[in-house]
């Protein structure tokens, strides 16, 4: 029933289950419930076209028709500004604390509802990293706080606390048994970056009006400039040969050589499948690298290495694990054994091999775009999206760098040869 104005007499006359709408304040209503109690509310439509029922309160202390009408007008005023008061209240109830907000964020990310800058869902490995930072740093320090109470100062204090090691711990894990959480400036900076994404999610879902991470000065996430010296390459070569003699898992020896000769990321090499390799064209096509689909030139040395490897009857991984069909999860320990054999410094890691490959390519005079193509940095040109195989120039560059590395490792030249360049218009 619609009437011009809701009054005390109208409210007292309502029967059970009846609802009356006011025309002077569109959407404002009074409804008698099954218990004879009367509740006031307002119905409105959001900017996205969704109908909302916003409960104001029961008739009686403190709500009267006049007071409820004024509250309805306030709500309708917020709606006119583009807000959704009821939706915001529901979202706030879902995540009253930062810990609950983090859980919502992870659930949506795992379901593929949150996209990266490349417009694709987060990978499982990224989600695992995010989950680790949330459980080991964010929840212990900020998890108890109300979402709308977190201020910029809290984020700054959080960053310094992580950098100073206040979240350092030894954590039991299902897979490896024990994980060491150390903190530090790099971890602090990257975790604050994740917090920025989490609070952007909160703003988008109207859990709070602003992002407290915005404006926080993060620690410089230092670029790793460490590269292997000529002597360290020689030591690594000797360690690999000794590792073969000592019976270290052959696939671990092979993937270490492959990383050294290609400059690939560790995960890319460990996840490489035979179906992604074209030895005739000396090309690898990675469908889902860190930067998306990636075409990589393979040097003759890398191809020679691949040809020596047996193709396992189970699974397609080029560098299989010691047991099962999955990736080689134990590679960090196997790498440590190899490094100990040669007495390599602790800061020489598989990532250092990648940086060293790029640095050697620079020493040999290759341009940044060429080096980027060799190691799989994101292509910046439209042309790079349509390349299906490595061209002769890139293959020659890959050969040059790999041969130099073999020379430094004391393993001589592999294959050599001249790669013919295409003629213009050919």
Describe this structure in words.
The chain folds into three domains: 2-83, Integrase, DNA-binding domain (Double Stranded RNA Binding Domain, 2-Layer Sandwich); 95-204, DNA polymerase, domain 1; 230-408, Intergrase catalytic core (hpI Integrase, Chain A), CATH 1.10.443.10. Helix 5 (124-142) packs across helix 7 (185-204) and helix 6 packs antiparallel against helix 7. The protein has helices at 8-12, 65-80, 85-94, 98-110, 124-142, 152-163, 185-204, 230-246, 250-262, 266-270, 300-307, 331-342, 350-363, 368-375, 392-408; strands spanning 2-3, 19-22, 28-32, 38-45, 51-58, 169-173, 177-181, 277-278, 283-289, 292-297. The radius of gyration is 31 Å and the shape is elongated. 44% of the residues lie in helices and 12% in strands. The strands form three sheets. A five-stranded mixed β-sheet has the order 1-2-3-4-5.
Tally the structural domains.
3
Q: Give the CATH class of the largest domain.
A: Mainly Alpha
- For this structure, what is the CATH homologous superfamily of the largest domain? Intergrase catalytic core
What's the CATH architecture name of the largest domain? Orthogonal Bundle
Distance between the ends: 82 Å
- Binned, the helix content reads 40-55%
Number of strands: 10
Principal-axes geometry comes out as elongated
Q: Which stretches are low in confidence, meaning pLDDT under 50 for 5 or more residues running?
A: 380-388, 414-426
From the alpha carbons, calculate the radius of gyration and give it in angstroms.
Answer: 31 Å
Strand order of the largest sheet: 1-2-3-4-5
- Please state roughly what percent of the residues sit in beta strands, choosing from under 5%, 5-15%, 15-25%, 25-35%, 35-45% or over 45%: 5-15%
Secondary-structure element order, N to C: EHEEEEHHHHHEEHHHHEEEHHHHH
Major sheet attributes: 5 strands, mixed
- CATH fold annotation of the largest domain: hpI Integrase, Chain A
